[in-house]
Design brief:
The chain is α/β, with parallel strands linked by helices. Helices cover 33% and strands 21% of the residues. The chain has one domain: 3-Layer(aba) Sandwich (Alpha/beta knot). A 7-stranded parallel sheet has the order 3-2-1-6-4-7-5, with helices on both faces.
């Protein structure tokens, strides 16, 4: 076994990536404090061909040095938009046919183990603040909530880790 060289990985150029068809899912970052987390989610969105990222509330927007540090250029390849009000965004996306899913631990949540995405559906996944999670109003307006099963003592994951798990599960589920 040996590591592959960058040439062998056949990476798309930024222009090629912008031109390819993306998968029908959106990531919503609501009130994310850490710009490193924002940049990491951009990189994950690039890796898993997300359609777009919405940056809501206090979430910082590119260009910013702290976002670029972890995005490694993905902030220039992934489509994004700032939306000041997450609840208005939820209503807009639902009107456009998206199933809006909050990633949160709530009564009646669906375990990620039971989530089987459909190729024919469009999804929007909401990720909330590092301390407070997805705000209660967004939870109530989402179509439903997904929860990642956790077995240790902490029962919380970093938002960028959570986004990676959700994106991978979605992409693997529609293959």
């Amino acid at each position: 076994m040996r590591k592959l060289s960058m040439d062998e990985l056949n990476r798309l150029s930024a222009e090629e990536f912008r031109a390819i068809e993306k998968l029908p899912y959106i990531l919503i970052l609501d009130d994310i404090r850490s710009m490193n987390n924002v940049g990491s989610v951009f990189r994950t969105a690039d890796a898993f061909k997300a359609e777009k990222i919405y940056l809501c509330g206090i979430t910082a927007t590119p260009p910013h040095r702290e976002i670029q540090k972890t995005a490694l250029g993905a902030d220039e390849t992934v489509d994004w938009e700032h939306a000041p009000d997450v609840v208005a965004l939820i209503a807009k996306l639902q009107a456009e046919g998206y199933t809006v899913i909050a990633i949160e631990q709530v009564e009646g949540s669906t375990s990620l183990l039971d989530f089987q995405p459909k190729k024919t559906e469009k999804y929007a996944f909401i990720f909330g603040n590092e301390v407070f999670g997805v705000n209660e109003t967004a939870v109530k307006n989402a179509n439903y909530c997904l929860e990642i099963p956790q077995y240790g003592t902490k029962h919380s994951l970093n938002i960028s880790v959570t986004a990676g798990i959700i994106c991978w599960h979605y992409v693997a589920g529609i293959q």
